[in-house]
Amino acid sequence: MKTAIHCSNAPECCGPCSQAVHHGQTIHISGQIGCHPTSKEIVNTKCVKSQTEQALKNVQAIIEAAGGSMKDIVHCTICLTNMEDHNVVNEVFAKHFPHHQSGDKNHPAPAHTCFAVKELPMHAMVQVSAVGCCGGALPN
């Protein structure tokens, strides 16, 4: 059985989809851009670092609403409007997934795929979707 995850600490989806879907032990998180959940505006429209920070905060809020944590993320897909921003995005990812740098073999860094796209919603510079594995039970 699959269950939609809703989190008020992340922006609503802009299309006919769920913020995340929990199925079995897997959580599939829809693409998150650097949109602030309260203002519903892109943070710092000219800064991929700020937008990546916010996108990952949104991912974190959603996986926590599903009962997991960033340590449970096993894969991220990153879309960039400019591939030259890849190194900056990797620096931000390292901050949000610090457990892999400490040598924690039980929680390695997630795999990720990154590719360039022509455009993203709301003229964002980056979008991050994620898959996490965190058990079969949803929080109450």
Commentary on this structure:
By secondary structure, the protein is of the alpha+beta class. Helix content is 21%, strand content 27%. The protein has helices at residues 48-65, 86-96; strands at 2-5, 20-23, 26-33, 73-80, 111-116, 126-133. Strands 1-2-3-6-4-5 form a 6-stranded mixed β-sheet, with helices on one face. It starts with a strand and ends in a 7-residue tail after the last strand. The model has no long low-confidence stretch (mean pLDDT 91).
Per-chain topology:
Blueprint: E1 2-5, E2 20-23, E3 26-33, H1 48-65, E4 73-80, H2 86-96, E5 111-116, E6 126-133
Parallel strand pairs: 4-5
Antiparallel strand pairs: 1-2, 2-3, 3-6, 4-6
Helix content: 10-25%
Structural class, by secondary structure, is: alpha+beta
SSE order, as H and E?
A: EEEHEHEE
Spatial sequence of strands, sheet with the most strands? 1-2-3-6-4-5
Task: Provide the descriptors you would attach to this structure in a database record.
140 residues, alpha+beta, 6 strands, globular
Summarize the structure.
This protein is α+β, with helices and mostly antiparallel strands and 140 residues long. It contains two helices and six strands. α1 (48-65) packs parallel to α2 (86-96).
